[in-house]
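Notes on consecutive records. When two proteins share a document, each keeps its own sequence and its own token line. Never mix them. Below: protein one.
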Amino acid sequence: MAKQVKFKQQNVSIGDKIRVLQKIQEGDKIRTQPFEGILIAIKGEGENKMITVRKIAAGNIGVERIWPLNSSWIEDIKVLKQGQVRRAKLYYLREKPGKLKFIHEKEKPRPARRKSRPKTSKK
């Protein structure tokens, strides 16, 4: 099972909070609509990879969208927060809507500390 996928030189992992920018066609106009939520599943292999994103809409209603990764309607995927999870599929979030808030964020590596100069004693 895939725990991460690459989309336009950007790694996207399960548990990440992402924003999917999708093209919507209304008549002869095309506009971009964002969908922001947590990536709960990656399915398929190769060209058939699909991602499932879940968000909580107004009135505590859960909304899930499924997109094929090679779709021409996906303009961009941006990672807002990197989540740290231990499972490949986060379907348990469907029964526990309050749990979406409690996905731990990955710790970013700390910059290396500068080595201090050895203290010289004055005599």
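Protein two starts on the next line and is unrelated to protein one.
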Amino acid sequence: MKRWGFLGTMTALLAAAFVVPPGEGPALCLSRRVFRFPCPGCGMMRSVSAFAQGRFGDSIRYHLFGPLVFASMAALWVAALAGVIRRRDYRAPDSPAFNGTLGVTLVLLLGYWAARAATGTIP
């Protein structure tokens, strides 16, 4: 049953990216609402949505990591669908290379956030 939940979640997230117009609606960032300061992911969903809808320049402007997140979401959707077809639950990779990649990505995300915060370019 977990595999259907994972597939449903990934399908809903991808569908939202294709349907929801980027930049419309309230800001959902809890950090921005509570602390009045944007988080490292601010602009990410707008970027993902813009990318899904073919607005690549807007996607990069909202958040540089948005296209990467969209590609990751699409890959996870394929993995979820494969799990349903093969009747196996999805398991995240657990290898030093994968974990190292996550660590480097986190450092880059935080550096990008700090640069955007310092220059006032966070949407």
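For the record: The chain is about 70% helix and 0% strand.
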